[in-house]
Amino acid sequence: MNNKRIILHIDMNSYFASVEQQANPFLRGKAVGVCAYMSPGGCIIASSAEAKAKGIKTGCTVRDAKQLDPDVVLVENEPAKYRSTTERIFSILAEYTDRLEPYSIDESFLDLTGWTSDFGAARDLGILIQRRIKDEVGEWLNCSVGISWTKFLAKFAGDIAPKKGMVVIGENLSCPPLLKGVSGGCFEWMSLDGALRDRPLTDAWGINSAMEARLNALGIKTLLDLKLYDKDKIRRVFGRYGYYLWANVNGIEITKVENGTPPPKSVGHSYCIPKKTKDKEYLSLVLYKLCEKTGRRLRSLELEANVINIFFAYTYGGGTGKSFKTSERMFTTEEIYRYAGGFLERTQILLPVRMIAVSVTRLSSVSSQMGLFYDNLKMKDLSRAMDRINDKYGEYTVCRGLMFGTENVARDRIGFRKTLPAPGVSVSG
Prior knowledge:
Strand order of the largest sheet: 5-6-1-7-8-9
Helix content: 25-40%
Strand content: 15-25%
Largest sheet: 6 strands, mixed
Distance between the termini: 43 Å
CATH class of the largest domain: Alpha Beta
Order of helices and strands: EHEEHHEHEEHEHEEHHHHHEHEEHEH
Structural class: alpha+beta
CATH topology of the largest domain: Alpha-Beta Plaits
Number of helices: 14
Shape: globular
Number of strands: 13
Number of domains: 3
CATH architecture of the largest domain: 2-Layer Sandwich
């Protein structure tokens, strides 16, 4: 095991709902659903354990949740509350390694190689982390922990671990005793084959139902089947991705834990419109707001983009959209909206729109090159200045005229794979 890494994966249980129950003791023990929006068609983005027991799960609408349990307590999400809680949790995690990678607001990887001597010590540390989160952040906050020697296997272990529990996947079948002073903790020690045996393919990170069907066609029914399959055959069928799948379940390291958050490949926002409409004037206001939110995040990362993606989803299925390379790199809100708004102006909206999405890709570090047709450097400086004011005094302290009256449109929300800063860097909307 000396040449193996020691990776710990931590995943908070029912996170947003648990944070709400921690903040409000009257919600504890009750079915709680955290909603993106409180309208009947609003989506449940997190459910408490009590709500999940009644069938109210992520993706359920407000209307359906009330039908499943008329007594369910529904609350609108408060991103600032979840971010501040995450900062406190990550500050604890950062005490145990210099290689901490946030994977989402409620999930992260710790490379403990060199910080702990073996998997037994890592298990003891996992128990300590679980206890510290409850003692120092909130007694109602629980997490699952997975430990193994690759990032993939650590996440797999965490995903199959019971709520509040831990799974260690190690090469040595013998489970070392807990260190003196370490007590409690619900954990299971497993061999790699034991962890994979009889596990459905979709239990693995990166295998969806479509890939499962393709693997089934090769006679691969379980994750252990995938591990034992001929690597050359699977590579001939699926190419490099097939090899990655095989290597992951064979404990071959493909990706390492990054120190901090890896740079994003895209930045964007979407909004489900409460009142479906074909009104372009209203749609343009929502679109501008999404461009502003996208631009704010792009600028906070000091990145600019060269490709834009726009999509309008219709109420009764389908939609219209476009993805294209822009003539100049985008950094300011105006630059993003110039392309997005131009697309809306040229497009015939055939049916009422239920959702709008904007994202930008092909990201690179911001440059100081002046635009070909206008002085974009002054616009960049102006945008940065407005961002600093809004960061200090609150969103929309200063805003562009097009955004007047849109405070309640496309409000701040949390994505489950939202980019997070490294510990020590504040998280802002």
